[in-house]
Amino acid sequence: MNALMPSPRLVRAALPALSLAALLVAIWFVQPRAISYFGFNLMLNLAMPIAFATIAQLCVITVNDLDLSIGAFVSFVACVGATWLNATPLLGVAVLLGAVVVYALVGALIHLRNLPSIVVTLGMSFFWLGCSVLLLPSPGGSAPAWLAALVKVRTPLVPFAILVSAALALVVHVGLMRSAWGAILRGAGGNPVAVARAGWSLLRTKVTMFALAGFFGVLSGLSLVGLTTSADANIAIRYTLLSIAGVILGGGEFVGGRVSPVGAVLGAMTLTLAGSLLSFLRISPDWQIGAQGAILIVVLALRALVNRLERRR
Amino acid sequence: MKIARLLLASATLGLLAAPQALADTADKKIALSNNYAGNSWRQAMLKSWQKVTSQAVADKVVAAADAFTTAENQATEQAAQIQNLVLQGYDAIVVNAASPTALNGAVKEACDAGIVVVSFDGIVTEPCAWRIAVDFKKMGSDQLDYLAERLPDGGNLLEIRGLAGVSVDEEIHSGIVAGVAKHPKFKVVGSVNGDWAQTVAQKAVAGILPSLPEIAAVVTQGGDGYGAAEAFKAAGRPTPIIIMGNRHDELTWWKQQKDANGYETMSVSIAPGVSTLAFWVAQQILDGQDVPKDLVVPFLRIDQDNLEASLEATEPGGVANKEYTLDEAKAVVAGK
Question: Where is the Periplasmic binding protein domain (chain B) (predicted)?
């Protein structure tokens, strides 16, 4: 029996890709015209900022923390992108760099004072929201022309959003899963005591991961504002939960160290496409949230099954 | 041969005689993208859409007119929804937008795909879309014009505002400020936020009343008139002229007062049926008519003489409504 089954590790890694493929087949069945260059361009371009936000969340989850402020942070970046970055580019870049530094400091604070990350980042979410409202009290602003042009670039054969997502998944995969540094960063989440005993600074790893989260959050906000061309203080509030769902859907776990960058990017795409499919199916909006939840539960149930297989070995 | 030519001629005549709308848009599909359905006004809006468009579909004016509401009131979600509607092959999308600016990217993509986008109520600023806006400022200044007629000597005003930070509140307020500037005998002596809700308005007015001198009139934004009346009654103060906002509870109270002591006022708000105007405007654009990009929709005003008729037509718990016909929409387009 066991000889016939592929290894659970492989199944686990393939699960995000399989769920995405199943979703694509369903979309092709319901709305064939969506499976085209034009269709993918439309369906997936909003997946790009979600993929960045998911990778940001993945960085934080890697060190066994949770970031509840990523949605508000992405909104803040979008607001900066639609105001300062356009009017006074130097100030805009400085503010965005400063924001990444603030993210790193939050990581340091969580580590040094041994605070629960949920509480600190929840507090930070109000901080970012407050900054956005001060910056942009009513919806408006406009994205710099180069940014809007960049995210709408029409690449030949494969839509830009897919290329960016693939590159993102690859870079983070190599950096986090294949490099020696990545092993330490993951180890700091999975087994902090061992990593500390081996002489590595836990403070430095935490600061690095939070800074990376801030960096990917900035990319998320900039790609989002490029797509929408203007911002709103509440534009990305939903990204907090979407990014967590994306990481988990992609094979990550809340125990620290167990993450999959490729899976997380696929998870973000799955969540975006699930919304499209439900809309194509003409499911009443009252049921859509429930249906989205059901998709999550189905995938997680499959994962639990894989986990059980793993344990049986 | 002769017969064939005769047939052809009569067919041509028939085509000419048929209303143009039927000829050109029978195979067109129109979608409604709506960002919120959580209050009585939005429910009435969706109901009006359903009623008018299902008739239009049955009459073969358009092929389909489906309504979509996002699960959460979020601009990113509505942007994705609009992109999905583009893929589903709709010819026109009617939008009540979550944000005036955050949908611009998606709206532009729809326009680039050759789709007509008409926004109403919550409008979008993207230039390629049509806008059906309500002149909220005039809604504020009209209240002062009415009061100047009723009270030539002027007097003290209490202003009930809406939800702080929302653009509609700001616009109605600026109209009221402009009205006071035009009729300087009036003076706003107090201002509270009633959040367009009866209970909130009642609490807010009750809180500020003891500190106020005699009030001649209350200027409002809709949904708050009944609460204000109750607060004045509870405080034992004479009832001033309270401008109403077309809600059923407000009209009912007004009718009771009118029957009991000849109370006079007026009531003004936007009709949720503006969604049906947006539908006809989209149909007219698909039909090839020349429609200006910015349209202003008249608001719905109820006066002393048409109170009974309006109250009768309004459902309990609802808002006085007006659904548009094709001809009325054409009149709005023509700027009449």
Answer: 30-289
**Domain parsing of chain A, residue ranges:** 43-303
CATH homologous superfamily for B2-134+271-299+319-333? Response regulator (3.40.50.2300)
How sure is the predictor about B257, in pLDDT bands with cuts at 50, 70 and 90? very high
Report whether pLDDT(B17) > 90.
Answer: no
| Candidates 3.40.50.620, 3.30.428.10, 3.40.50.2300, 1.20.1300.10; CATH matching B136-269 | 3.40.50.2300
The answer to whether the CB of B213 falls within 8 A of the CB of B238 is: no
Query: What is the average pLDDT score of chain A?
Result: 88
Kindly provide the ipTM of the predicted complex, given to two decimals.
Answer: 0.72
Nearest alpha-carbon partner for B150 in B190, B117, B186: B186
Q: How far apart are CA B280 and CA B329, in angstroms?
A: 6
Q: B108 to chain A: which residues are within 8 Å by CB?
A: 229
Place of tokens 């532009």: B108
Question: What is the 8-class DSSP label of residue A233?
Answer: T
For A138, the closest of B37, B89, B167 (CB atoms) is B167
CB contact (8 A) between residue B83 and residue A137: no
Rounded Cα–Cα distance for residues B136 and B296 (Å): 10
Number of H helices, E strands in chain A: 15, 0
Mutate which: B50, B77, B78, B101, vs A, most A CBs within 10 A: B101
Sequence ranges of the domains in chain B: 2-134+271-299+319-333, 136-269
Question: CB-based contacts of A93: which residues, under 8 Å, 6+ apart?
Answer: A85
Please state which CATH number belongs to domain A43-303. Answer: 1.10.3470
Facing A46 at nearest CB: one of B68, B79, B86: B79
When CB atoms are compared, the residue of A34, A138, A230 closest to B87 is A34
The whole-angstrom distance between B324's CA and the closest CA on chain A is 26
- Can you give the pLDDT at residue A164? 93
- Cβ under 8 Å to B: A residues 23-42: 31, 33-34, 38-39, 42
The CA distances from residue B29 to A55, A174, B49, B71, in Å, are 39, 48, 14, 23
Please name the residues between 107 and 136 in chain B that touch chain A, using a CB distance below 8 Å: 108-109, 113, 125
- The list of chain A residues with pLDDT below 70 reads 1-6, 285-286, 313
* Token code pair at residue B133: 């806006």
